[in-house]
């Protein structure tokens, strides 16, 4: 419509003037139709469940179709529930170690595979490979490898005379094992994102730095790191959300939340409440609380980094 | 023109995807099926893994049973395989009011389903003679008052399975050398450890199954989780404390591993030499029979504490009919017809399940007698289970989730973090009492 209204005198006839509008409409329609299945899927499987979760949080739900309005009852129960508080503490501790660990390992790998060396493509593929395997399969393979005394890791250590601890049967080692497996599984994906960020940095900057006599550390500190800030922001944000809300299958197969609740992260506690005890209302309230925590974290991260620009303009 | 055609093609493709995709997505939310067909959720049939000989025999039993019913009745039964019941699939189905018409249930879940009004009272479809035919210690947790809400298809007692070659390697060569007390069992575990042999394995993974395997150790010393009237905690008792301490000792003294080998498959762990002894159930007999029939293994009754009495727990699944299903009456009739009638076919079916498809104790007196006459318990291991271990059994408790979790946390804390058993028993007892104060529903057993 704008094109028609602004068409100057002597411009092509009305018919030809409609063409761009008509084309744009058709393109818009095509775009909407392409997006429709995805949007419908998001609405059905994300939008509606999210709203339902928020609403269910105010009900006592027996898991058999019985609903009773209890207002903030589930939220009051949450803060008096020692197991919920334990799972929250465990989750925060887990994230405090996991997110920086994942960040550093992924960045180091991205810096490594950015180099040109024989079979670099194969190395990149191998590092990314765990991402294309089901997390249940990943967990099963690791579970067999980490089994006390007969797992391959214990056998290798035993060959060198080292007595291994019970990786999955001792509280502190179980948390450590989950951390290692999670980093192993996720690092390829975040490495790829870092790699994309690294490849966006113009090579000329490095060439000039080299001419100026900068060493690898100075190059990293003054060129790579500042120009990777938007990518780093994106990774910090998405990895926190993903690690806090995902990995249930890993926990379920590897430790079932044990030993003695030591790996009962909040996502596993939600699962237990909903599907083991049938407390769908309580589980929904915890889920809603988790969303609030993630929103606060995201807002804080946006504010602290000025939307990922870190006060450095659009770099 | 080529561009337009391509764009048109894309537009049409997108429209098609949207049109086809929407109903496909929406259909997941709708009710399905009609009243002429009832669904039976189970974890045996149709067989998802034809290569597994154990599962093949069990799947066939289900398929034959349903085929026999479908030949004679207008309302058909359709078997639907689901992974072990009590998982999210069943919980989600009931939450959406889409539960199966018939399903299998373990005693631990019965009260939750009964309290929600989901279980059909099967009593009107059973004769008094048939109800009396079910073994009572095992049947108790399937009754509310004198009404029957679930029909057991099997009885699965726990015992100690062991590898004969591994036991012989540490000098246990005769039945009289096998441990009969906790102290002897712990001493044997240390002997195996000193000889660098595989361990004695007790369940260490948290969950309903670990509680199930732990209860008999508590009962042996006279302990209980709930008082006889079902209204108070009885967990803060010497029996419970001693049993918690037993599990603590097995780990602290290095007798049992913190993580079970062979993915917690007792028979497999023994066959592959990962365990010298394993606390597991009678179902392992079928595993040996189908996978490695010549493997030399034995069974001994769970040892007892000083002054204790022999006890084991009787597990096993049961048929139930969904009271909110499409046709609860026919579903209940099916359950009764299949394994709860005095008709010979029904009794034969129980015999076949417990002695041919599986290796279990028949839950009905008539079936147990017939199976014994037919040689179903001639095998020395099965005979030992039937004559020595099963009579010491008590039905698997039906504790609500809060009670289960309090006990589970106590077991895990003592076993895997070395916590003080007395303190843990007190803590769990307080949690159970707090819950029982407001509990309303069927009697907790």
Automatic annotation (TrEMBL), chain A:
Q: Which domain of life is it from?
A: Bacteria
Compartments where found: Cell membrane
List keywords of the entry alphabetically: Cell membrane, Membrane, Transmembrane, Transmembrane helix, Transport
UniProt xrefs under InterPro entries: ABC_transporter_permease (IPR051393), MetI-like (IPR000515), MetI-like_sf (IPR035906)
Return the annotated region ranges for Disordered. 1-23
Chief location of this protein?
A: membrane
Family from the record = Belongs to the binding-protein-dependent transport system permease family.
Record protein name field: Sugar ABC transporter permease
From TrEMBL, chain B:
Presence of keyword Signal: yes
List cellular component terms (GO).
cell envelope
Cellular compartment(s) = Cell envelope
Write down the Pfam families for this protein, in alphabetical order.
SBP_bac_1
Keywords carried by this UniProt record: Signal, Transport
Superkingdom classification of source: Bacteria
Mind telling me which CDD domains this protein's record contains?
Answer: PBP2_TMBP_like
Which N-terminal stretch is annotated as signal sequence?
A: 1-17
Key word Repeat present in the record? Answer: no
Concerning its family, UniProt says:
Belongs to the bacterial solute-binding protein 1 family.
**Protein name (database record):** Sugar ABC transporter substrate-binding protein
């Amino acid at each position: 419509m704008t094109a028609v209204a602004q068409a100057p005198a002597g411009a092509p006839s009305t018919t030809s003037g409609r063409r761009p509008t008509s084309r744009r409409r058709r393109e818009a329609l095509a775009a909407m139709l392409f997006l429709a299945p995805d949007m419908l899927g998001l609405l059905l499987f994300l939008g509606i469940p999210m709203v339902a979760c928020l609403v269910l949080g105010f009900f006592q739900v027996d898991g058999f179709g019985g609903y009773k309005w209890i207002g903030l009852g589930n939220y009051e129960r949450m803060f008096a529930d020692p197991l919920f508080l334990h799972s929250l503490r465990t989750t925060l501790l887990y994230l405090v170690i996991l997110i920086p660990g994942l960040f550093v390992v992924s960045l180091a790998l991205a810096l490594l595979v950015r180099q040109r060396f024989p079979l670099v493509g194969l190395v990149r593929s191998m590092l990314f490979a765990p991402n294309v395997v089901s997390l249940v399969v990943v967990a099963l393979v690791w579970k067999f490898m980490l089994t006390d005394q007969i797992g391959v890791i214990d056998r290798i250590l035993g060959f060198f005379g080292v007595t291994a601890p019970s990786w999955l049967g001792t509280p502190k080692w179980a948390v450590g094992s989950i951390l290692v497996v999670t980093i192993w599984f996720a690092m390829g994906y975040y490495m790829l994102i870092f790699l994309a960020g690294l490849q966006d940095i113009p090579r000329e900057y490095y060439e000039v730095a080299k001419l100026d006599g900068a060493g690898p550390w100075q190059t990293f500190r003054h060129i790579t790191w500042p120009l990777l800030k938007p990518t780093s922001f994106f990774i910090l944000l998405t990895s926190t959300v993903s690690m806090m809300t995902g990995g249930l299958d890993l926990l379920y197969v590897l430790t079932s939340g044990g030993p003695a609740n030591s790996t009962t992260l909040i996502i596993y506690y939600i699962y237990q409440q909903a599907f083991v005890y049938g407390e769908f209302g309580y589980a929904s309230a915890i889920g809603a609380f988790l969303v609030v925590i993630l929103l606060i974290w995201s807002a804080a991260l946006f504010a602290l980094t000025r939307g990922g620009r870190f006060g450095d303009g659009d770099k | 023109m080529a561009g337009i055609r391509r764009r048109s093609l894309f537009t049409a493709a997108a429209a098609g995807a949207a049109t086809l995709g929407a109903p496909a997505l929406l259909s997941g939310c709708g009710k399905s099926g009609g009243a002429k067909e009832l669904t039976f959720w189970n974890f045996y049939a149709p067989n998802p893994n034809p290569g597994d000989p154990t599962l093949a025999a069990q799947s066939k039993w289900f398929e034959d049973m349903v085929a026999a019913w479908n030949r004679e009745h207008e309302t058909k039964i359709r078997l639907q395989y689901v992974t072990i019941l009590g998982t999210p699939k069943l919980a989600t189905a009931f939450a959406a009011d889409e539960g199966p018409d018939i399903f299998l249930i373990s005693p631990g879940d019965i009260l939750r389903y009964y309290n929600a009004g989901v279980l059909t009272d099967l009593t009107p479809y059973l004769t008094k003679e048939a109800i009396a035919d079910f073994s009572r210690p095992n049947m108790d947790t399937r009754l509310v008052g004198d009404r029957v809400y679930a029909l057991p298809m099997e009885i699965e007692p726990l015992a100690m399975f062991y590898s004969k070659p591994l036991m012989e390697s540490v000098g246990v060569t005769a039945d009289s050398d096998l441990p009969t007390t906790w102290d002897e069992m712990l001493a044997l575990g240390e002997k195996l450890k000193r000889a660098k042999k595989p361990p004695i394995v007790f369940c260490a993974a948290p969950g309903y199954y670990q509680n199930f395997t732990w209860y008999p150790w508590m009962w042996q010393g006279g302990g209980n989780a709930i008082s006889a009237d079902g209204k108070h905690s009885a967990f803060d008792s010497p029996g419970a404390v001693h049993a918690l301490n037993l599990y603590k000792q097995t780990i602290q003294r290095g007798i049992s591993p913190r993580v079970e080998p062979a993915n917690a498959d007792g028979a497999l762990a023994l066959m592959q030499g990962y365990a010298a002894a394993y606390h597991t159930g009678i179902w392992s007999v079928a595993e040996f029979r189908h996978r490695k029939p010549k493997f030399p293994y034995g069974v001994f009754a769970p040892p007892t504490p000083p002054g204790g009495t022999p006890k084991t727990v009787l597990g096993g699944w049961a048929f139930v009919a969904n009271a909110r299903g499409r046709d609860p009456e026919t579903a209940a009739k099916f359950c009764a017809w299949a394994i709860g009638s005095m008709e010979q076919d029904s009794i034969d079916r129980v015999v076949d399940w417990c002695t041919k498809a599986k290796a279990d104790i028949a839950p009905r007196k008539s079936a147990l007698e017939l199976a014994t006459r037919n040689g179903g318990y001639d095998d020395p291991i099965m005979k030992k289970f039937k004559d020595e271990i099963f009579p010491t059994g008590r039905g698997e408790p039906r504790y609500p989730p809060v009670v289960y979790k309090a006990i589970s946390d106590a077991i895990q804390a003592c076993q895997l973090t070395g916590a003080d058993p007395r303190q843990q028993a007190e803590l769990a007892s307080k949690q159970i009492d707090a819950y029982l104060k407001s509990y309303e529903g069927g009697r907790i057993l």
